[in-house]
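Duplicate of #3305? Posting structure anyway:
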């Protein structure tokens, strides 16, 4: 039954890619099936645009972003259940510690169902043609100021690294192990490793939505959305 479901969804993905330049996937939690659909989507799009060499790098990045988006939604539910205020600094740190201690794969599945019931989602929006690809990972909970500050700091620091081992070593020595921030910093390093300008990666807050946007030009005719963004996290001077 699972195999039939995967094949059916993959046929729909392949059909959408072959017929147009847009594709949207939506989920409430990261599962093995979701991972397979992300990989198949990238394979289909990058084959069509003749940039298959980017499959594994983009898959790694997308997986990180979707996990972060799903966790962000699930953390909001956890804080609500614990009657903790995200915007109160002491309560925020208490909640994060409680969440880290309680987190497990079983919990992720349970809270994924709760996210679905509350209308919280993580959506992957692909837009692509021969000029380039734009991928947006959207979750419908906004980043609070404390989290935004952490992300801005991580992204700024990551711009100074070109090597994953060097980055890991310095983070370990400083005792800095903030999960989501570390993952975002590694994304920047992966992009630099592919020769992709990391300024094409943005995290934006629009109302109650947090949007992680990655753009990759395939030609000089590609037009980026970044110049139209009113608010950016991690913007470089």
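Output from current build:
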């Amino acid at each position: 039954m699972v195999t039939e479901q995967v094949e059916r969804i993959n046929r729909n993905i392949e059909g959408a890619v072959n017929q147009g330049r847009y594709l949207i996937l939506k989920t409430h939690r990261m599962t093995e099936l979701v991972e397979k659909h992300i990989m198949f989507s990238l394979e289909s799009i990058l084959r069509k645009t003749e940039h298959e060499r980017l499959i594994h790098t983009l898959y790694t990045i997308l997986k990180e972003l979707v996990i972060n988006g799903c966790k962000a939604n699930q953390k909001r539910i956890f804080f609500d259940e614990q009657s903790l205020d995200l915007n109160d600094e002491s309560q925020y740190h208490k909640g994060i510690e409680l969440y880290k201690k309680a987190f497990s794969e079983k919990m992720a599945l349970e809270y994924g169902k709760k996210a679905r019931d509350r209308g919280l989602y993580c959506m992957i929006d692909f837009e692509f043609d021969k000029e380039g690809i734009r991928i947006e990972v959207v979750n419908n909970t906004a980043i609070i100021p404390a989290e935004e500050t952490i992300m801005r700091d991580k992204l700024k620091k990551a711009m100074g690294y070109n090597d994953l081992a060097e980055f890991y070593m310095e983070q370990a020595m400083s005792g800095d192990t903030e999960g989501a921030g570390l993952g975002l910093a590694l994304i920047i390093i992966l992009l630099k490793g592919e020769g992709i300008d990391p300024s094409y990666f943005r995290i934006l807050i629009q109302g109650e939505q947090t949007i992680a946007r990655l753009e990759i030009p395939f030609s000089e005719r590609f037009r980026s959305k970044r110049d139209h963004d009113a608010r950016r996290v991690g913007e470089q001077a």
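Confirmed duplicate; merging threads. The chain is about 55% helix and 15% strand. The first helix runs from residue 2 to 19.
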